[in-house]
Here is the input.
Amino acid sequence: MKIVRTVIEVREQVKKWREQGLSVGFVPTMGYLHEGHKSLILKSVEQNDRTVVSIFVNPTQFGENEDLSTYPRDLDSDAALCTDAKADLIFHPEPEQMYPQGFCTGVNMSVLTQELCGKSRPVHFGGVCTVVSKLFNIVKPDRAYFGEKDAQQLAIIRRMVEDLNFDIEIVGCPIVRESDGLAKSSRNTYLNTEERKAAVILSKSIALGKELVQNGERDAQTIIKAMTEKISSEPLARIDYVEVVDALTMQKVQKIEKSVLVAIAVFIGKTRLIDNFSFNI
Ligand code: AMP
Here is the structure.
């Protein structure tokens, strides 16, 4: 497994693979890799001849008061996980490699970015769409792998690929959780012992919402109210949002008549965590 830091090196390697007729899978990440990321890499290795993992803490998707400077990083441990999962190449660029002086282009999306994390983090998805477009143009993969943990991001990437005619198949992968239900996240490392225990309230409220929907509840407000009450029973939790949205457009719904995403964002102390479930009709 090789680690490269420049666009030219990625292009040269991928070109060689293409000349040999090999297919290429791609897993974009911000590093500090865990079993959730690994599940995406393993899926790519299973479905493609070669797998590229990018590790880049993308500055343009962080707002001013967010955790860009403190975001956890550990390239050695990331490289070990990628080797173990049989990835072939890590692309680990410096910010200047991705955003050289004079850079002034961006990819922006309306509609799907209006609710949920797009509302709380106004610059976030513009940064995501821009960096993912760049990475797609650099790696030119056959398939790219994204986690359902970031369900709004996955819907946005699917829409962007359709809208901008990227010839790439987007593969969604299920949420990987800790044994107590907490969705794995690089940001879980911010939690102290007490907060870590409290954080299980996210998956508990997700389980409650899922149970209600599976038992036939179709009124969004009833589901939101029950989940909100559950989260509010945890003193360390502060709700950012609890929403029910259309699975494709990410617009709020009142009644569940089509496939929906039920998504939450909750602060545990200063750490903002997200979780969700989809209900398909
Ligand atoms: P990140 O490094 O947080 O930007 O995540 C990179 C990719 O890994 C994204 O597509 C995430 O949705 C995915 N991912 C992160 N955590 C999990 C998880 N617990 N289960 C499945 N996929 C995940």
Q: What stands out?
A: The radius of gyration is 19 Å. The chain has a mean pLDDT of 98. The first strand starts at residue 2 and ends at 4.
